Amino acid sequence: MISFRNVTKVYPNGVVGLRHVTLDIQQGEFVAIIGLSGAGKSTLIRTINRMIEITEGELVVDDVDVSKLKGKALRLFRRRIGMIFQSFNLITRSTAIKNVLTSLVPDMPWYKTLFGIYSKAQKIASLEALDKVGILEKAYTRCDQLSGGQQQRVALARTLNQKPTIILADEPVAALDPITAKMVMGDFAKINEETNITILINIHHVDLALDYAKRLIGIRDGEIVYDGPVKNVTQEILDEIYKGKDIPKSEQADVQG
Ligand code: ADP
Predict the structure, then answer these.
(1) Is residue 257 part of a domain?
(2) What is the CATH number of the domain that holds 36?
(3) Ligand 1 centroid from CA 138, angstroms
(4) 216 CA from centroid of ligand 1 (Å)
(5) Cα-based angle 134, 140, 143 (whole degrees, multiple of 5)
(6) Is residue 65 assigned to a domain?
(7) Is there an atom of ligand 1 within 6 Å of 53 CB?
(8) Cβ contacts of residue 254 below 8 Å, gap of 6+?
(9) Residue 47 and residue 2: Cα distance in Å, rounded?
(10) pLDDT tens digits along 9-35
């Protein structure tokens, strides 16, 4: 379980990223975080693996106080959390399978990483991860020859190979066209259903959040203004989350009631 207790983040320049956030996320949940640009979505996600340090409150993941982790314990904790970015962060001159294999590097002796010596079992696991996201046939293609959607799927396979219990995805479909974005969201939903990995997605597209996630967190100016099942979301709730600013037509959801 991920547990925020009265968490506040104030950046060194005085800007408040999060204000008194309290929420619990159970293992296996699929949560979308929505809000205007600058609302604090990315800050919320990145505090969980300590890419961003909180300034007040308590953040507990599976009974461990995250702020107290140091050295090896922090490294091991981070290994359990997969991170997916908008920009994929792949080694684009390498093949898909080599990128997926790199997720194993922190656990390998230095001489094996130096020469890229991977065991048969590691190679099979990496191919299985590529298969899970539907791009096994691209295993030996260089990433710079893959489409954006395929590259994001390689990134997802690399994260899966790390055997995470949590996946944090920071705007994972923002760089993709609408059809590809749906496919990648479908991958997240399938992985969540099949593996019970907790998935948190910071997403700009309200309609995709509502179509694929199960729980929605709406954030405005660092504060949680909605937290509940996707099926209970109404237009009034979306108006509250996006108060004061228009949501571009292309991103508005067609919500009933
Ligand atoms: P979102 O992901 O919803 O667009 P962010 O979490 O990135 O929002 O940002 C929340 C607020 O914190 C914004 O006002 C943003 O400008 C500010 N912020 C984010 N990162 C930093 C930083 N490194 N230093 C100072 N302010 C930051």
Answers:
(1) no
(2) 3.40.50.300
(3) 36
(4) 20
(5) 80
(6) yes
(7) no
(8) 207
(9) 11
(10) 999 999 999 999 999 999 999 999 999
